[in-house]
Amino acid sequence: MMLSIENLRVSFAREHGDPVEVVHGINVTLDKGETLGIVGESGSGKSVLSLATMGLLPRTATASGKILLDGEDILSMSERQLCRVRGRKIGMIFQEPMTALNPSMRVGAQIAEGLRLSQGLSRRAARAEALRLLDMVKIPRAADRIDSFPHEMSGGQRQRVGIAIALALKPELLIADEPTTALDVTVQAEVLDILDELVSELGISLILISHDLGVIARITDRTLVMYRGDEMEQGETEQVLRRPAHAYTRKLISALPNRVRSALETPDG
Amino acid sequence: MAEILKVQNLSRHYTLNGTTIKALDEVTLGLEEGRILGVVGESGSGKSTLAKLVMALDRPTSGEVRLDGDNLFDLSPRQLRAARRNFQMVFQDPYSSLDPRQTVEKIIAEPLHLDPDAPKGRARRDRVGELLEDVGLSAADVSRYPHEFSGGQRQRIAIARALITKPRLLVADEATSALDLTVQKQILELILKLRAEHGISVLFITHNIGVVDEICDEVAVMQHGRLVETGPARAVLDSPDKAYTRQLLAAEPTLEVIGRKARRTATR
């Protein structure tokens, strides 16, 4: 067992009045190499859940329950301990690569930064590893692009750099929060393929957060459906989508454009 | 049926450091009265440039936008102002397109300055109330502020604002892209209802093919500022003529194969 979230509750302090609870007791487990999709609409608590798992909740938030990563509880770690977990054990990919990357730093240096700080690699060795990572995420002519700034790259390439940074320290768990939402569909397909390939090859566990059932269907083994901080259902992705157990999941599926939904009615494609 | 909108050889070029960027290049399109035309494409395809030109918010490098036969760019400023009540726009982000300090009544009634015969006072308030009911909100909402509404409700307010001058053409630029799936469905249903009740024509700009299939009669596929293909939505989506359209359709996330193990077996 690698990740086990037990009865996680998160509430936010308010200026006036009692704190407001936004995640109401979620239970999730994730094995090595497994991929879990978390799907929900705005306000479902899916992003708060992922921030809690990274130990990145804002100060105004209080969490209870347990988030056990290889038996150690993220929620009771000091900031110092968390710093050893983030990047090394858990990698994170964000929605908007333009804001997640440092605009004034060359992409190669951004990938190398973590390698130098946490693995103590020399400048030269870190650069060589950054180049290997850029190749791995299929940046064409990586050697020519390693000294590019983020604004010189397309959205899809920037997100690949984001993946390279997240994978640089060989984490056991990758959390991707709407990683392709800001991308065009053709680019989205490429980025998902790269993500899928690397996660499988490297045996990394993946939590993919998305509002898009098509993205969830493409890449995940299991799916958790959330609504307003509660679990609606959880199970094999195929089961959840083809035989939804909860009325909310059915509502979500029925809101899909016909074109996408119709494929569900003919399991043979 | 009569064409309400005719876009003829429309181009918009920008010159940047001596190189010319053709944001829109020789695009010709027509929209018939009471129909919904989807314009679909990825970033940089020119679809938003097209919307801006159709709304006369920008001037083309060359070409025409004819609304009821009149080229918008031949009109005097005064004539253009008068024409504006016939075409209104709904934007993508309902959080930034509504003034947070204005009441719903003020927001919705704002375009009435285009109409010298617009109702005033009590009659104006009643008209705003009717429109709120029309878009599925309540007439009692007139004195509330945008922050009191959800994203989907705000988009309904933006649609009510676009409808108050009784336009014949509605231009929607990614009007459902920022909304949750269940809310998107409600807004699409609203647009179909308004078309049925008022016979309004819609230019629906989107990157989402599923949405085109849901509400559009015709579709125009764009790439790099050019029109790739156009035709009845069903025909283009079912049997696309052009390689780019096929590529776009193939990239669309589907639910045919679910789960990564299943997908591996299926592609092998």
From TrEMBL, chain A:
CDD domains associated with the record: ABC_NikE_OppD_transporters
Alphabetized GO MF terms: ATP binding; ATP hydrolysis activity
Gene Ontology annotations for the cellular component aspect, listed alphabetically: plasma membrane
Membrane topology recorded in Swiss-Prot or TrEMBL: Peripheral membrane protein
GO biological processes: peptide transport; transmembrane transport
Top-rank lineage group of the source organism: Bacteria
Record keyword Cell membrane present: yes
Subcellular localization(s) per the UniProt record: Cell inner membrane
Keywords, comma-separated and alphabetical: ATP-binding, Cell membrane, Membrane, Nucleotide-binding, Transport
Domain ABC transporter intervals: 3-253
Assigned protein family: Belongs to the ABC transporter superfamily.
Name under which the protein is recorded: Peptide/nickel transport system ATP-binding protein
Organism: Celeribacter neptunius
Automatic annotation (TrEMBL), chain B:
Keyword ATP-binding part of the UniProt annotation: yes
SUPFAM superfamilies associated with the record: P-loop containing nucleoside triphosphate hydrolases (SSF52540)
Chief localisation class: membrane
Residue intervals of the ABC transporter domain: 5-249
Topology with respect to the bilayer: Peripheral membrane protein
Gene Ontology CC entries for this record: plasma membrane
Pfam families xref list: ABC_tran (PF00005)
GO terms, molecular function: ATP binding; ATP hydrolysis activity
Keywords: ATP-binding, Nucleotide-binding, Transport
BP GO annotations: transmembrane transport
Compartments where found: Cell inner membrane
The family this protein is said to belong to: Belongs to the ABC transporter superfamily.
Full protein name: Peptide/nickel transport system ATP-binding protein
Species per Swiss-Prot/TrEMBL record: Celeribacter neptunius
Record lineage: Bacteria, Pseudomonadati, Pseudomonadota, Alphaproteobacteria, Rhodobacterales
